[in-house]
Amino acid sequence: MNKYTPPRKRGSLLERAGEVYEYIPAVRTGERSDMRSHILPPEPSEQQPKAIVTQPVQAYDGPRVIVDRDKLREAGFIVPDGPVTGISEEFRIIKRQLLLAAKGSQKTKPVPHGERILICSAHPNEGKTFCALNLALSIAAEKDNEVLLVDADFAKPSILSSLGLEGSKGLMDALADPQLPVENCIIHTDIPGLAILPAGDQTNADTEYLASSRTEQVLNRLTQNNPHRIVIFDSPPALSASPASVLAMHVGQVLMVVKADETTETALRDALSLMGGCEHVQLLLNGTKFSPTGRRFGSYYGYGE
Questions:
Q1: Where are any strands of DSSP class E within the chain?
Q2: Which of 44, 70, 231, 277 is a plausible cystine mate for 248, CB 3.0–4.6 Å?
Q3: 0.70 cut: is pTM over it?
C-alpha cells in the first residue's frame, strides 16, 4: 500500500477519499478545506442554451418484477422504506452532490450529461457494484427524480443477481441490434422510481459497440424526454476491462470507488487517466475502519461487490 497522511476524522466520503489520495487539495492545519469548487459544476459558459422542445415523457416498455427486500437487507443494501441507517445517511450526502451537478442550481448550470453517472473502480472487489446499487436505491427515494440503473459490466454482470432477479435482454443487445428498442429491455421494479437495464449478452466487440455512434443514440433515448431521470452505469473495473474508458466519454460524471488500504495510489492514478473522456470525476472512499463521530459504519464498509 502506498504511504499517505492519515485522513482527518471529519468530512464526507468524497472529501476523505480526496484527502487520502491527494486527488483534492486539503488543508491539514485543522481547518476544514473548501470542497465546493471540486464538487460543483463549472462556471456557466457564455454560450446561450439551445431551445428545448417539450415532448411527452418516454415510457419504459419492459417487464415488471418484485425485488426481494430480505435479500437486500441480508446483503447490506439500503432497504426501501426501511429505517434510517448509517449507510442510507452516507448515500444521502453523496447523492446530493451528484444531483446538484446534474440539475444545477440558481448559481450554476448543470454539467453536460450530468444526469449520466458512471460508477467505476481501478480493480475488481473494491465495492463499485455495492455503491452503484445503493446510490440508485437512494436516488429512487427522491420525490423529484427517478433512476435507471444500467449494468454495463458486460463480462461479469451482477446487478440482477444482487436484486435476486433473472437475466434478460439488455444494453449490449440493443447496441448490437438496431431493430431492438432499448425501452423493451428495461425492467420495471416494484420499488418506486427504480428501473434496471441489464447488461445483455456479451460479445467479442463490446468496446467497439460502445464506441459507435449508435451508443449515443441509444443513451439519448433513455433521458431526452424526461428531465427527472438519472442514469447510473455500473462499469467494469477501469484497469481490468476496456469498456470503462469508452463509457466515460458518454457520461457527465464519474464516481471512482477507492477501497481504503487496498487501492494503491499508482493504480488510482492509472485508472483516473483512463477516465479522461469525462471532465467531472470524484472519489468515493470505501472500506474505511475509522468512525469520525462514534457511529459504526462497519456493516456498510465491510461489504464488497
A1: 64-65, 116-121, 146-151, 187-189, 194-197, 229-234, 253-259, 281-286
A2: 277
A3: yes
